[in-house]
Amino acid sequence: MRDLACDVAVIGAGTAGIAAHRAALSAGAKAVLIEQGPGGTTCARVGCMPSKLLITAAEAAEDARAAHRLGIHVGAVHVDGPAVLSRLRRLRDRFVGSVFEGLEQLPDESRLTGRAVFEGPDCLRIDDHTRLRFKAAVLATGSSPSVPEPLRDLGERVLTTDTVFDIEDLPASLAVLGAGPVGLELAQAMARLGVRTSVFDPGDSLGGLSDPDLKAAAREIFSQTFDLHLGAKVAHAAPDGDGARLGWSGEGGAGDGRFARVLAAAGRPPNVRGLGLERTGVSLDEKGSPSYDSRSLLCEGAPILIAGDANADRPVLHEASRQGRIAGRNAARLAAGEGLERPERWVALAMVFSQPQIAVIGGGFSPESGRIVGRADFCDQGRAQVMDRAQGGIRLYAEPDGRLTGAELIGPEVEHLGHLLAYAVQDGLDVRRFRDRPFYHPTLEEGLDTALSDLVDRLG
Amino acid sequence: MRDLACDVAVIGAGTAGIAAHRAALSAGAKAVLIEQGPGGTTCARVGCMPSKLLITAAEAAEDARAAHRLGIHVGAVHVDGPAVLSRLRRLRDRFVGSVFEGLEQLPDESRLTGRAVFEGPDCLRIDDHTRLRFKAAVLATGSSPSVPEPLRDLGERVLTTDTVFDIEDLPASLAVLGAGPVGLELAQAMARLGVRTSVFDPGDSLGGLSDPDLKAAAREIFSQTFDLHLGAKVAHAAPDGDGARLGWSGEGGAGDGRFARVLAAAGRPPNVRGLGLERTGVSLDEKGSPSYDSRSLLCEGAPILIAGDANADRPVLHEASRQGRIAGRNAARLAAGEGLERPERWVALAMVFSQPQIAVIGGGFSPESGRIVGRADFCDQGRAQVMDRAQGGIRLYAEPDGRLTGAELIGPEVEHLGHLLAYAVQDGLDVRRFRDRPFYHPTLEEGLDTALSDLVDRLG
Hints:
The structure is a homodimer.
Chain A (H helix, E strand, L loop, with lengths): L1 E4 L2 E4 L3 H12 L4 E5 L6 H5 L1 H19 L5 E2 L4 E2 L1 H24 L6 E3 L2 E5 L2 E4 L3 E4 L2 E4 L18 E2 L13 E5 L3 H12 L3 E6 L10 H11 L4 E4 L2 E8 L2 E7 L5 E5 L1 E4 L39 E3 L10 H19 L13 E4 L4 E5 L10 E6 L4 H5 L6 E6 L5 E8 L2 H13 L4 H5 L9 H15 L1
Parallel strand pairs in A: 1-9, 2-3, 2-10, 3-6, 10-19, 11-18, 12-13, 12-18, 13-14
Antiparallel strand pairs in A: 7-8, 8-9, 15-16, 16-17, 20-21, 21-24, 22-23, 23-24
Helix pairs in contact in A: 1-7, 3-4, 3-5
């Protein structure tokens, strides 16, 4: 066991950890990055990138099937599952590889490998080989998929995002537990790739939507692609040959069925257990998660900052990356005895890359807020009709004084309108000023113009 | 011949004219709209909408052909030309129909039909049936496609945007004269629909690009889809059976060839001839176009305003619509003896809906400006790679103080980045502030983040 000392110890070499380490180094701190595997960021390895690769193939299959509506005839559409998955892994491995390349460029003395456990508020042990004293630490340990209790005896019949992208061929059928962003994206992609797919969720919402109208629209749209059971909880599961038999019940009805595979997509709890946090003096809640300040990212009770999925606040890459930078800079400041930065939070921005896509800006709908709601419908929107994608709608929320505060959208390619709206909300833009901007014709952005116009009328 | 009088006479019932008429009515003026056909706006009838409908079908054909790269196999792709064109006309007629519905809701006394000719600075004659005295007039007569001299003896072998969407089936081959936005969109769509297509343009640019790097990228990308002759002018044309034989020459080389049809896509001059403008006192240039103020839209020498394609300034729908509103309000003010509004101009925004798309914001590149240039490439951009559309690049232009002034882009779906950038330029946003915004992962907007980062580095 060797003894080392540093200014800033960063635990976890994912998106948040890498950003924190770089920021601490840039601030002049002696910073050490502790990699504890699996290598590669959640995003590149099991998250954003592989799911978007699966979706790209699924959309190609669906578009080919629908091309006849535009006068383009193709023969039978054949999904070559192994080829789809092989392209997915080839590009995924390239994205993961570029993460590794970045790490390999770091000087050896600023990297350690192994499982880090706190021995106290200023000391970590890495495996049995190193004791590392630090002035400040950044906890960037990420999250891991959870497997609900009833599925625990199903062995390899259960997939998670950690394993689903490594299957050799597509299953004949799939039960997806969880209708949030991850469950919805993968369920729709699998269904379009020819997998008989059922989705179960105890709630009444798809893809994180909260607006009542849009939730209803989403239920109608997606239930045409897969078998949808909202208000249904999977209570029983048992192996059945190569597959599994599930039983479910709830307000949405009861039933049972057999599936070749089951995908657990009901959440990714933060990795905060088994780290010795109880020896640091940090205040922990009943789940073992530290209390922390959402702007400085400092935990209560010790010189430890928490960034990225580990704090379970906004588990999306752009927030993990920014939180990493903030935590790294603040760790360097703590180590140097300086005061902490508390930058304004960005507007919350969440997206689902289903088709139609979903975007929620500023936390979405809240019936008690007294906010004014502006509406537009993609069903009669010019460009959406041209594209043969006229489905969904826009809801904009504004204060009575005209300031835009949030939005929810389901519709074609709303990832782009999501950015426009996020920036407008972040700037506190008045909806009347927003309207006095060019909306090119014929674009989906004109749907936003319609919703803004409705909102301005309602403001009176 | 009856005699009528009004406050505001609006000549032309296209996008600008309809907007002007509505704005003048809203301002309390007695306003008359003079429709002189063909009915329906340029946009709905022969412009934005039918071209985007053709492009949608062409992209479906191309995507089906490329789907095997994603593991999706389809049989032979067969383009059913009559079906493609029939869907196009069905939706086009619906868009045109909704323009007519809007007009039919106007009170009869505020509409006149016929060809309007100025008899003096306050008087119009409409056909031989009406003399209309006005206090102010709005000229919103639009534009018409020009047919270059060498093509004038080809009869029905020559198509323009006025006629190309009415053909019953796709031609076997097509020569497109003009590589601007319209020529490029239609040439690529036709080529993807199986038409052997050649494009001729005396210039060196495609789709209105001005940045040298992006012009070169565009030449390379699009010459893979159709036979491209830049620096080549069609000098001779003669009928050859059902088709036409063309001869061309110039810096780009000389040659000749036979084509089933020829599409004249080299411009739409404004409709300003034969209107009797010379009797109004308005200052006219050598082409017969009035001198006017680009903010108030008032012509020099008479109470006449000019809006939309008729002033040939920014022949795009969102400008025609806004100019119509400004001209209509100002016409009402003139009629009431009030001073004119001179609202700030919007940032210039031009787009080409080819694949990859093109967007030019703020007028594009100017080598003498001393502006700082930020660059990013779509070839190694994550989302573009996932989508199998990793082509093109971004150029951002900023003043040395950091203020964003313009941009040019060629790349996947840059219509959306175009909006983001147009709003940032219009707001005079500092590129350092622009960077401190969420860019969701994995999106094409992250390419913009990369270009902003490059620009910030160059600002020092």
